Amino acid sequence: MGARMARSLQSGPVSQPPSIPDALPPAAAPGEEDKPHPLHRRLKSFVKRGGRTTEGQAKAYEDFGPSFLVPYREAPLDFDAAFGRHAPTVLEIGFGMGEATAHIATVLPGTNFLACEVHEPGVGKLLKRCGEQGIGNIRIVAHDAVDVLDHMLLPDTLAGVHVFFPDPWHKKRHNKRRLLQTPFVRKLAEHLAPGGYLHCATDWQPYAEQMLEVLSAEPLLRNTATDYAPKPDYRPLTKFENRGLKLGHGVWDLVFVKPLA
User: Fold this and answer.
1) Sign of the alpha-carbon torsion through 105, 94, 148, 34
2) In this structure, are residues 52 and 6 in contact, taking their beta carbons and an 8 Å threshold?
3) How do residues 2-24 score in pLDDT, each as one tens digit?
4) Are the C-beta atoms of 110 and 11 separated by less than 8 Å?
5) What's 180's DSSP letter?
6) How far is CA 11 from the centre of its chain?
């Protein structure tokens, strides 16, 4: 499955990343940092985490932000203009520190990756990787993926969506906060082009079971496996994941597709 999917996502060579004006996120006014965006009151794709942005990550915003950051705007995003070429585009939601995103973009150079993350140190780290390693097929939107889906991405346009290791919200009373619930899965399915795929992964079995139930109930999607899928070749083992596997912890991948017709 992983090899076939990788081949299907290949396209032409990656062009040099264009300079994108106004890409750096504006500084928040005093007292504004903790105010929720009005569109986040019902559904959002993230939980704001703490963490210190290092000097190197901050410098990456300045040095590489204009080339790799796409500003959030309530207008459809032109993929060809943003990436400087025509190629299938995959949305990645919540990339953490960007290690897996950078790896996948490197092994699938013919695919565009639009990566959403609000954790500033993680954005800075991925910017640094892109700039220093010359990874030209990644663009970053430092904004909530729900807003990006609602206002920047048109239906039936994505070749794929990656949601790797979202917050499992372990406590039962918090399960309702999990990202992969029925309304959000429908939103993702509607944005996939026919033939596009949704790849989710988690290391928390109760969340894996909920993912399988919710994804299987979405009429726009079909499972590529009987239940859980083999890990596609393009998804690397992170250090955290590899450590968990050595301790006997499980990891579950789910790959669903939107049928062609």
Assistant:
1) negative
2) no
3) 555 555 555 544 444 444 334 44
4) yes
5) -
6) 20
Nearest to 168 by CA among 198, 207, 205: 207
Q: What is the C-alpha separation between 163 and 211, in angstroms, rounded?
A: 11
Q: Which comes out higher in pLDDT, residue 169 or 141?
A: 141
Give residue 160's identity as a one-letter amino acid code.
Answer: G
Of 34, 63, 150, 167, the catalytic one is 167
| Residue 151: DSSP 8-state | H
Nearest to 118 by CA among 92, 139, 144: 144
Q: Which amino acid is at 92?
A: E
CA distances from 178 to 48, 63, 156 (A): 14, 35, 24
CB atoms within 10 A of CB 245: 13
> What's the pTM value of the predicted model, to 2 decimals?
0.81
Cβ pair 5, 197 in contact under 8 A: yes
Mention every residue, 6+ apart, whose C-beta is less than 8 A from residue 22: 71
Is 167 assigned a catalytic role? yes
User: Alpha-carbon Rg of the chain, whole angstroms?
Assistant: 18
- Which domains does the chain show, CATH number per domain? 52-257 (3.40.50.150)
Q: What is the pLDDT of residues 36-64, one digit of tens each?
A: 433 334 445 444 444 577 887 888 899 99
Helix (H, G, I), strand (E, B) or coil at 218: coil
One DSSP character per residue, 79-133 reads HHHHHTS---EEEEE--TTSHHHHHHHHH-TTSEEEEE---HHHHHHHHHHHHHH
Question: Token pair 């994941």 is at which residue?
Answer: 241
Query: Which two structure tokens, joined as six digits, stand for 37?
Result: 């965006």
For residue range 136-149, list pLDDT tens digits in order: 999 999 999 999 99
Q: How many CB atoms lie within 10 A of CB 145?
A: 28
